[in-house]
Amino acid sequence: xxxxxxxxxxxxxxxxxxxxxxxVVEARLLxxxxxxxxxxxxxxxxxxxxxxxxxxxxxxxxxxxxxRVIFVDTEGKNHSMEYNADFTDKLSSDCIxxxxxxxxxxxxxxxxxxxxxxxxxKLACVVEVALDAVLSENLNVLTKGGENVYTHExxxxxxxxxxxxxxxxxxxxQMDALNGEILLCEAKAVTLKRTAHLDSILLEGNxxxxxxxxxxxxxxxxxRRVVPFAEEISAPDTREDHAVLGTVxxxxxxxxYETDGDKRAAALEFVLTAHVKSFAxxxxxxxxxxxxxxxxxxxxSQSFTVHACKHNATYQERVEGAVTxxxxxxxxxxxxxxxxxKLNIASAAAHExxxxxxxxxxxxxxYYSAEQNLKNSVAxxxxxxxxxxxxxxxxxxxxxxxGIVSSLAAKIQxxxxxxxxxxxxxxxxxxxxxxxxxxxxxxxxxxxVLPTAAFSVHxxxxxxxxxxxxxxxxxxxxxxxxxxxxLSLPLAGGERVLxxxxxxx
Length: 505
Hints:
Elements: E1 6-30, E2 37-55, E3 58-73, E4 78-92, E5 103-116, E6 120-144, E7 149-176, E8 181-197, E9 200-214, E10 220-234, E11 243-260, E12 263-292, E13 295-324, E14 334-351, E15 354-369, E16 374-389, E17 398-413, E18 417-447, E19 455-459, H1 466-473, H2 477-483, E20 496-500
Antiparallel strand pairs: 1-6, 2-3, 3-4, 5-6, 7-12, 8-9, 9-10, 11-12, 13-18, 14-15, 15-16, 17-18, 19-20
Helix pairs in contact: 1-2
């Protein structure tokens, strides 16, 4: 017997969320120039993280949380102050190996006032840091079993990472018709479209900038500017049919006040970070089971799971609700601004033909009460559960999702109720999950002791295939069909399948 099994090396790439970690970041803000804090109107917290070192089992990172506060002093005047808190932490997982390229993202889950007095404001925020990465499985898989070895083959469907790149780029614009001094500037980015080209990936989307101003009479107002971007990022060996992942985030931003006579404007600058990956969708044939009619086989099998990049798209949805002011809060007469709007996605799961995202839209609504001639604010939260249509979604898929509030309109109703309509953008990435078992080692064992009976009988189980029957009888699949010409496959269960060893004519 010429026993020469053939093995081939296979590298299967999986893009997946490796782990999620939460960190608490604290900040201490001091009022300047003898100003006394009377009431905090709004707190905006932004965060960014970058990987520092990767070891087996852990990835360390550096982070910066930026706190921006609008408050009213004891004389009713508006002020703003800010503080950047640097922090370091680590994420742990058995999947993290030295040399791994982690993609980190940070999301502010909550910000609380720890304490406040006339001179000092202590804050704490909870940052959720997620680590996504491409994990590779390197295997030697059996592709041919050799002479007189009968094999059962399966198709491996997987992704192969073709290119990965990170790029910082700058976007500038101008916001005209400012109504007074700038107290607060917020900026967030959303990627609306990802397109694979020859050796590059085009990312298109918007930066949404909100500026809160104070006029000469101390009244607050808000302006919004939507700045589109289209950035082509180098991704060597990418082709138009490749699956791509791409996202853009705001690394830093500024709004600089400018005046020219009666003209008031703000020069806007955004430093953006783009991260892209492209994947080729591939398949390979591998032996999943084997047997010989003459010898026992010594085989080693390995099971593994791959996550194949399947879908990355942005969904535009609307969330509506209302908030009722507490009885001890001033009646609202006009909405001044909406700040700190954010979208937290608690869970994202795939179903047949759709993705379901559950989460909360939150914001601070700043309003004016004419009766008491003061400014106040109220926190709003709108829970949601949204189905996002994706025809190729399967219940076994995994989903990661993030999003922003692109627009939030607040309307006063009956003085103590504020109706909210929020436009949101959800960026969802879907991976198909496939589990395989393949033979990675195969050796020839002792000769098989064949039954001495003239024939053997196999009582079939429901769903068994020709392969299952042949292996059970120790005959070739061709002989099983020859000796059982009326066999109907797949078997329903209960059939008597015969295997003759000494045929006489």
